[in-house]
Design a protein that fits this description.
Shape: elongated
Number of strands: 0
Strand content: under 5%
Helix content: over 70%
Distance between the termini: 57 Å
């Protein structure tokens, strides 16, 4: 058994639907392995789900963190985030992290803890980005960094969720551009 292959099969299945809707039996069948092999490799269903989330974070969420840390300035960074949420092919079926975050009460303790850690990292990255924009004089002081952090993260999540629902990417881009225009008003 190839553990990386099983993890990738599970990631694809979870990402296309929802982790709670995919059974271990289904993953074993899709990967062509026996259930005991899966448990030997990952310890439990929670271990597999945690491994999937870690891999997803490395492959996809790291892109968002890199965008936020690129130092391109407020408007340019927001434009890249808008492109990512509305046009990146990986987001066509939504964001696996957002799916896990929304359904974390259905996840095992290891995965739930990791979801919370990644969420905290994302909040910190959004906050650092917005604080940097404020420090550079590119963002007005009327909105707190804390409120802006939550708002920015949730607007990106909404746009990606709309992608998964089959909304027109051009319409998503238009609405997200409007929503994030609050950050560039002086």
């Amino acid at each position: 058994m190839n553990a990386d292959n099983v993890r990738d099969v599970a990631m694809d299945a979870y990402w296309r639907t929802d982790p709670a809707d995919v059974s271990i039996n289904a993953i074993c069948q899709m990967a062509g392995i026996a259930k005991p092999s899966l448990y030997r490799a990952f310890g439990s269903e929670d271990g597999l789900t945690r491994a999937v989330l870690d891999s997803y974070a490395e492959r996809v969420l790291s892109v968002v963190f890199a965008i936020l840390q690129n130092g391109e300035g407020l408007r340019d960074t927001l434009d890249v985030l808008i492109d990512f949420a509305s046009a990146d092919p990986r987001m066509e079926t939504g964001c696996l992290f957002y799916k896990m975050r929304a359904g974390k009460h259905r996840l095992g303790p290891e995965t739930r803890k990791r979801v919370e850690e990644i969420d905290a990292m994302a909040q910190a990255a959004y906050a650092a980005f917005l604080q940097g924009a404020r420090d550079a004089g590119n963002w007005p002081g009327g909105l707190s960094v804390e409120a802006g952090t939550t708002y920015l993260g949730e607007q990106i999540a909404l746009a990606i969720t709309q992608r998964a629902s089959g909304e027109d990417p051009a319409r998503i881009r238009e609405m997200l551009t409007l929503a994030l225009s609050v950050f560039s008003r002086q």
